[in-house]
Specification:
Layout lengths: L6 E2 L6 E6 L2 E8 L2 E6 L2 H14 L10 E2 L2 E6 L2 E5 L1 H10 L29 H14 L7 H8 L7 H17 L2
Helix pairs in contact: 3-4
Length: 176
């Protein structure tokens, strides 16, 4: 990408940027997927031609779904959501048919480590909480609750799992 005049981002090494004539073109790479965007249509066309000379590639058009994030367009707007990701997570955890909760966490929850408290299955707890952390990119309404349950990743107890299940129940009712 540097040979085409792009600079690698310091904050995300899979992101490459090119600024010229007051416009920007962005390219992000994930394994064998590439997303190209920006406000310089001419540069985007040139980049696609350059890349197709270097690699076998297929232009799939506008982005629809990437890494669990669904991208929807309307005139002048782009909406992102993770509805499919949520439904997959609910199915994976056996919560697809659960009763929805009104809030992601109980007010004045008081979650803490209890001396002698029964331990939860740590690997499962960590896997679900990691997915909830990723989901927080498009669901800031869950950020506080996910921050609370993530405090117990090193040694989750059964009552912490209950708090995670409540977040999942909240997602059930707000997946759209």
């Amino acid at each position: 990408m540097t040979k085409f005049g792009y600079k690698q981002s310091d904050s995300d090494h899979t992101l490459f940027l090119k600024r010229q004539k007051g416009r920007i073109t962005c390219l992000i790479i994930y394994v064998d997927d590439i997303i190209i965007t920006g406000d310089d249509k001419e540069e985007i066309g040139i980049l696609k031609k350059q890349l197709s000379c270097e690699f076998e590639m297929k232009d799939l058009g506008y982005l629809k779904y990437f890494l669990g994030i669904e991208v929807l367009r309307s005139k002048g707007c782009i909406f992102i959501n993770q509805r499919k990701y949520i439904l997959h997570l609910l199915a994976e955890t056996g919560m697809i048919d659960c009763k929805p909760a009104d809030t992601p966490i109980i007010a004045h929850h008081g979650l803490q480590m209890i001396k002698g408290g029964k331990l939860a299955y740590r690997e499962q707890y960590q896997r679900v909480v990691r997915k909830l952390i990723y989901l927080a990119h498009t669901r800031p309404d869950n950020l506080y609750a996910v921050g609370i349950v993530s405090r117990f990743m090193h040694q989750p107890q059964i009552h912490h799992t209950g708090a995670v299940m409540r977040i999942l129940r909240y997602l059930k009712g707000t997946s759209s």
